[in-house]
Specification:
372 residues; alpha+beta; six-stranded antiparallel beta barrel
Length: 372
């Protein structure tokens, strides 16, 4: 069974947070058009607890994800490694996403986490299901689909800065920003509205940021601009290459994201223990990006223009939306977006590992059209 990182069936979001003084709930807005940009609110006005500070989130007001949820997507051979050198290219363009969804019935706020990649001065690529979340009742029946209300975006987050009591500048060398609006594939949006499904070959979205953080200059970079993946001058030989389905089996790739089953750079080569999870501050879970470097087990051809990748790699909640890239000579090619994992095996489907949305030429055209 495929489990997307942030779907209600694999609860990554914590229990809803409600304001101490409940405000009047606004009427439910009409659904946005299937191919429209969806407006996002300023996190500071939605939930001050999600605004990144020295600890990135307010631990006293946000509960911790259940241990069982964080380890639900593992495979036996977990070879993921924590990334370092977060001020170097391309790692500084990896983004931790903190997402809040407002329940229109009672105003309750549900928080969840994802990953993304800065691909423009003010654009972040991620998975659509990070931002478009289906709701199900206690019996598992689909109720409705809700869009993200606010998204905080932290490029280059490195929780190891807090390990030695470091300041916010050590953990967030490029500060943070937030989404102004987002857009996802029309097919994904229609499928999610109809049944809560998350078509993995269309699981891609772009967040347009409130400011052009990629153009900002930082002292930690010697006064250079942050840049972004694929930048003509500051891209460090990175590019987005649309790949045809069925042409990549056996190739080794990097699948990267901020996993909620890791406490900073612990634990390597194994599951985090229940005791380690309980002792880890909420802000340190998923605070360091981890990479799985494994082969593509199969290039799944879902359609003529869209497809998926099966990866012999472990994954965990929080990695959804993270990039999948391969090294070709001296360049890095972005070829996929982490969708989720398949943690069960059957006679009909023996595969166990991660699933990524393949960036085909059609997907690439969609994404590039949204960057204009």
């Amino acid at each position: 069974m495929s489990a997307a990182m942030m779907s209600p069936s694999t609860p990554e979001s914590t229990a809803p947070w409600r304001p101490a003084r409940q405000r009047e709930v606004a009427p439910v807005p009409a659904p946005a058009a299937a191919d429209a940009w969806i407006a996002l609110e300023d996190p500071a006005t939605v939930f001050p607890g999600m605004v990144p500070g020295a600890v990135r989130i307010d631990e006293t007001r946000i509960g911790k994800s259940a241990y069982e949820a964080t380890v639900a997507c593992h495979i036996d051979d977990d070879q993921r490694q924590p990334l370092g050198q977060m001020r170097e290219r391309p790692y500084r363009w990896l983004c931790k996403l903190q997402v809040v969804v407002r329940d229109p019935d009672d105003g309750a706020l549900h928080m969840a986490f994802g990953s993304g990649l800065l691909i423009g001065e003010r654009h972040v690529l991620t998975a659509a299901h990070v931002l478009v979340q289906a709701q199900f009742d206690a019996s598992g029946r689909f109720r409705r689909t809700l869009d993200a209300t606010a998204v905080a975006v932290i490029p280059g987050l490195d929780g190891r800065g807090r390990k030695a009591g470091g300041a916010a500048a050590d953990t967030m060398p490029f500060g943070w920003t937030h989404g102004a609006n987002f857009r996802c594939a029309r097919v994904f949006r229609l499928a999610s509205r109809a049944s809560g499904s998350e078509p993995k070959d269309f699981d891609y979205a772009v967040i347009r940021l409130a400011d052009a953080i990629g153009a900002r200059r930082f002292a930690s970079l010697g006064g250079a601009a942050l840049g972004h993946w694929g930048h003509p001058a500051h891209g460090g030989l990175t590019r987005m290459n649309g790949r045809a389905t069925g042409s990549l089996k056996g190739v080794k790739v990097n699948a990267v994201g901020y996993p909620q089953d890791k406490c900073r750079d612990v634990a390597q080569g194994r599951d985090i223990t229940r005791a380690e999870h309980a002792a880890c501050p909420t802000a340190d879970l998923g605070s360091v990006p981890w990479v799985g470097f494994d082969r593509i087990a199969a290039s799944g051809t879902v359609g003529a223009s869209f497809g998926t990748l099966d990866l012999d790699s472990a994954a965990a909640p929080g990695m959804s939306g993270g990039p999948v890239w391969l090294r070709w000579q001296s360049a890095r090619d972005l070829i996929g977006i982490v969708h989720g994992c398949d943690a069960t095996s059957s006679k009909d489907n023996p595969f166990v590992g991660s699933i990524a949305t393949l960036i085909t030429p059609s997907v690439k055209r969609d994404i590039q059209s949204w960057l204009r």
